[in-house]
Specification:
single chain, 178 residues
């Protein structure tokens, strides 16, 4: 029974954070506010998460799984558009997570998410004969930095550039490894 309550509290807290992120920036959300809104105790919060950044990482991982499911059936040319479309559909969540003075921990979550995808992509391309212009960790950080920064600027601009245009530009910049 205890295990079911733990899973339930975890799910409720993740859903509550997502609801709050549709209303206000991540930096302004406290653990107390999360617990009150979710109707769970602080001890239940800390039984499931180290801190609010861990909770955010879990929420972003769930979003990443949704994106992965969407991109499975798309070509590399299309997958960037699919990702940007998803971000735009969930615009308040992503804007309030990343656009208003994101903290280092929040940005690390974004970079880690991109990194997981690109490590597997580069390994696959290397087995196909791609010769990288430098050590894999340097190449990965270069491309992740560019993708993350251009996507963050797009979010901060309130999606000023059409997603198709941004995706096409990002794809052209990534062509050497795709």
């Amino acid at each position: 029974m205890k295990n079911n309550r733990k899973v339930s509290a975890k799910t409720v807290l993740m859903e509550t954070l997502e609801q709050l992120l549709h209303k206000k920036p991540f930096q302004k959300i406290s653990v107390n506010e999360l617990c009150e809104a979710a109707l769970v105790s602080r001890s239940a919060f800390y039984a499931n998460f180290e801190d609010k950044y861990h909770l955010l990482a879990c929420c972003l991982e769930a979003k990443k799984e949704e994106i992965d499911a969407l991109t499975e059936t798309h070509s590399p040319e299309e997958f960037l558009t699919v990702i940007l479309e998803f971000i735009q559909q969930e615009n308040r969540f992503f804007f309030n997570t990343f656009a208003s003075e994101p903290e280092r921990e929040t940005l690390d979550i974004l970079y880690t998410s991109f990194e997981k995808h690109f490590v597997s992509l580069l390994k696959e391309r290397e087995t196909d004969g791609l010769v990288l212009p430098g050590p894999p960790e340097v190449v990965i950080s270069f491309f992740i930095g560019g993708l993350a920064t251009s996507t963050l600027r797009w979010i901060k601009s309130n999606y000023k550039i059409p997603k198709e245009e941004l995706a096409a530009c990002q794809h052209r910049l990534l062509e050497s490894i795709l």
